[in-house]
């Protein structure tokens, strides 16, 4: 494996397990201590858990080359299932946030808002079924084909095989699996940005100053949503180009590798920044570590003096 790719995988591994492990730890602590988790928080903890496990699986196949074909095939299918499940659940999460925050008087939107809990359950079920179908149908077929003709394999035994985009057949199934989740995410994020921007214009027209807390909160959410949308578009283009590049060359550009590997970690990091409870827990941990470092330093100096 190329040295640059090894460095990328190592960095994304530690970054991914730290960020997603933090999200899982915060919500598990809240749940164990008696706090209840709403539907959106439950989806968020499952997204973080799947990404946490995905980083371990992808690193296992990357840094342990001689794990054997059966183990590698199992990790191959598991990583695809975890990746597509987390991707689909994030789309469901976008729908939940859109319905919760947006304010439309449309009859269809009001109907969805009144039944959002039931609709989210059906969307989660549909996402899991599509992810499972893709992993069962496409990934083993892709894996067998790639090992029947070694002259036609690109990046064999590398984590990029684990994305399930290494054969001609996977490209069509990849587009089909991506369509359902992508449609939910794009439509919900666009509707939410439009609703927030319209409400922001209404606040400004009412004569509110630019330092108005509601206006600042709306603008901050809009910026975060635009960042989410940009990350998603970059990820989709990278996956698409990675699939199309197989018809021309036998390897992917390192820039596309970086985007594919770091997207889950960066997306989870932005989720921490945009979520009030996670952001507060992160600040508490940060200030606690600073306090521990300051109290430990005088004790060390006293011991050295003695």
Based on the coordinates given, report the CATH architecture. Answer: Up-down Bundle
- Helicity range of the residues? over 70%
- What is the class in the CATH system? Mainly Alpha
Query: What value does the Rg take, in angstroms?
Result: 22 Å
Give start-end ranges of low-pLDDT stretches.
Answer: 148-167
Number of domains: 1
Strand-residue proportion: under 5%
Order of helical and strand elements: HHHHHHHHH
Structural class: mainly alpha
Oligomer: single chain
CATH superfamily: Rhodopsin 7-helix transmembrane proteins
H/I helix tally: 9
Distance between the termini: 51 Å
Rough shape? globular
The major pleated sheet works out as: none
Total strands: 0
Mean pLDDT across residues: 75
InterPro entries: TAS2R
Main location: membrane
Transmembrane segments: 6-28, 40-58, 70-99, 119-141, 161-180, 221-241, 253-273
Organism: Xenopus laevis
């Amino acid at each position: 494996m190329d040295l640059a790719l090894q460095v990328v995988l190592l960095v994304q591994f530690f970054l991914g397990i730290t960020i997603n492990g933090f999200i899982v730890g915060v919500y598990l602590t809240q749940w164990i201590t008696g706090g209840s988790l709403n539907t959106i928080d439950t989806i968020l903890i499952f997204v973080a858990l799947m990404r946490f496990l995905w980083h371990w699986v992808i690193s296992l196949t990357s840094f342990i080359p001689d794990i054997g074909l059966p183990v590698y095939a199992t990790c191959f299918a598991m990583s695809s299932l975890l990746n597509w499940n987390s991707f689909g659940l994030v789309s469901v999460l976008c729908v939940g946030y859109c319905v919760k925050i947006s304010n439309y008087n449309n009859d269809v939107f009001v109907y969805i808002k009144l039944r959002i809990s039931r609709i989210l359950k059906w969307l989660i079920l549909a996402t899991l079924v599509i992810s499972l179908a893709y992993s069962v149908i496409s990934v083993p077929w892709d894996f067998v084909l790639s090992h029947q003709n070694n002259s036609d394999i690109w990046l064999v035994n590398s984590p990029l095989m684990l994305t399930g985009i290494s054969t001609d057949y996977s490209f069509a199934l990849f587009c089909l699996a991506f369509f359902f989740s992508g449609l939910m995410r794009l439509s919900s994020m666009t509707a939410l940005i439009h609703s927030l921007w319209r409400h922001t214009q209404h606040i400004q027209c009412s004569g509110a100053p630019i330092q108005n807390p509601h206006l600042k909160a709306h603008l901050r959410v809009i910026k975060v949503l635009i960042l989410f949308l940009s990350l998603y578009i970059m990820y989709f283009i990278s996956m698409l180009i990675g699939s199309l590049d197989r018809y021309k060359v036998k390897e992917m550009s390192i820039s596309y590798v970086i985007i594919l590997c770091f997207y889950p970690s960066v997306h989870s990091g932005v989720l921490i920044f945009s979520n009030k409870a996670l952001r507060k827990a992160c600040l508490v941990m940060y200030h606690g570590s600073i306090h521990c470092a300051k109290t430990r330093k005088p004790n060390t100096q006293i011991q050295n003096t003695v």
